[in-house]
Design brief:
By secondary structure, the protein is an alpha/beta fold. The chain has twelve helices and 17 strands. 30% of the residues lie in helices and 22% in strands. About 2% of the residues have low confidence.
Length: 400
């Protein structure tokens, strides 16, 4: 970030503070890698009542995201339900159940730490619509959940009774994860009797159909689920409802069924159905032109979740980035992206100054970083996250 070849500028919203057209006029290559900042909805009655949150919101809250600083989730009930069997779902469950002494040593923001300190939640139900072999979380996240102190893990043995014959044929990562789940299912001894404990329950083959709420207070009081059977198709294993339903009481419901990228500028092509930027190997498609010679937007590329959807782990994202980088290099060699010299940030800053945008340089970021670390050190933490953009700008002494 401190080299002539790479410069950082933050607190700039593409599509608002600077347009895509202005960026393309300033740079030969623009790479869109802004991730997926929206969440997929369950699409069931009642999911918008008080006490229901998207995992994106909840994770942003305890991680100190400024836009989620005022979330204030109600943690006064004993039961919480999380829909989804991905890493994010397990991370949320771990945060709800982790001992405060453990959280105090992390960089969790103070307001979230105090809310979790006073939390009454004792039981967290992690519910997925398919079976153990279709779970999307990794063994690392699952193992961390099983190692929480003063906490019992519960898996129903019946979900694994017919898997013994197929385990040997599974890929290594899936095999290790399944074996660990079976081990936990067989050993539910947990902590010693008499000790205060919290519990997590992993339930399979359940789809949410309704959030049950109190008419008087318009807040969640439970969820209604349909029991599923699994049906194999030529492409995947899908959940099929049986017509059997179950109710589960809770005072907190978190949906963790996936993220979705958004459209940030009218001049950036966007596939609203799949929530991605239309592309081939990272080259952004020119969706307004059927001419084969103008198949792609010249000099515009994408990478990460906005390129292929919110799937995979860090290694997947790295591989994806390499593919996009290779496309840029290939176009550069063929002269498709660097036909003329463009001004770069010197042109961009003119537009930002006209709008009085308080952009952040890397040096400014370092001031904020140092301040957070110093504040955290005084409190025995790695850092104390600042959750206000205005306060961040004041720390960096930005008064543009």
């Amino acid at each position: 970030m401190q080299t002539r070849k790479c410069r950082f500028y933050g607190n700039i919203n593409v599509g608002k503070d600077i347009s895509m057209q202005q960026l393309r006029s300033a740079y030969n290559v623009v790479v869109l890698a802004y991730g997926a900042e929206n969440n997929r909805k369950l699409g069931i009655p009642g999911e918008d009542v008080s006490g229901c949150y998207a995992a994106r919101e909840f994770v942003g809250w305890y991680n100190g995201l400024p836009s989620m600083a005022d979330l204030k989730p109600d943690l006064s009930s004993e039961n919480a339900v999380i829909f989804g069997h991905g890493n994010v779902a397990l991370d949320v469950a771990r945060m709800l159940l982790a001992p405060i002494a453990m959280l105090e040593k992390t960089d969790i923001c103070t307001n979230a730490l105090e809310a979790l300190r006073n939390s009454k939640i004792k039981n967290v139900y992690i519910i997925g619509r398919r079976g153990p072999l279709q779970a999307a979380f990794t063994i690392k996240e699952f193992r961390e959940l099983t190692k929480l102190s003063n906490c019992n893990g519960h898996l129903d043995n019946s979900n694994f009774s017919d898997l013994s014959d197929c385990i040997t044929g599974l890929a290594r990562a899936r095999k290790r994860l399944t074996e660990l789940m079976i081990k936990v299912a067989l050993d539910n001894s947990g902590i010693q009797p008499g000790q205060q404990s919290r519990n997590w329950y992993m339930k399979f083959n359940r789809s949410p159909v309704e959030v049950l709420s109190s008419r008087k207070f318009n807040r969640v009081k439970g969820v209604r689920m349909e029991v599923n059977n699994l049906e194999e198709t030529s492409e995947s294993v899908r959940a099929v409802g049986t017509g059997e339903f179950e109710n589960l009481g809770c005072g907190l419901m978190i949906s963790s069924i996936g993220y979705k990228s958004i459209s940030i500028d009218k001049d950036i092509p966007y596939d609203s159905i799949n929530g991605i930027i239309p592309n081939i190997k990272g080259r952004v498609m020119n969706t307004d032109n059927s001419n084969e010679e103008e198949k792609y937007l010249k000099g515009v590329y994408c990478s990460g979740w906005v390129k292929r959807g919110p799937i995979g782990v860090i290694v997947s994202t790295m591989t994806d980035a390499f593919e996009t980088a290779n496309m840029i290099v290939e176009d550069m060699r063929q002269g498709n992206a660097f036909s003329e010299s463009l001004p770069g940030f010197e042109e961009v800053v003119k537009h930002l100054n006209q709008k009085e945008v308080k952009y952040v340089t890397f040096e400014d970021w370092c001031k904020i970083d140092a301040y957070e670390k110093d504040l955290g050190k005084m409190r025995g933490k790695p850092r104390e996250k600042i959750t206000s953009v205005v306060e961040m700008l004041n720390i960096a002494n930005i008064h543009k």
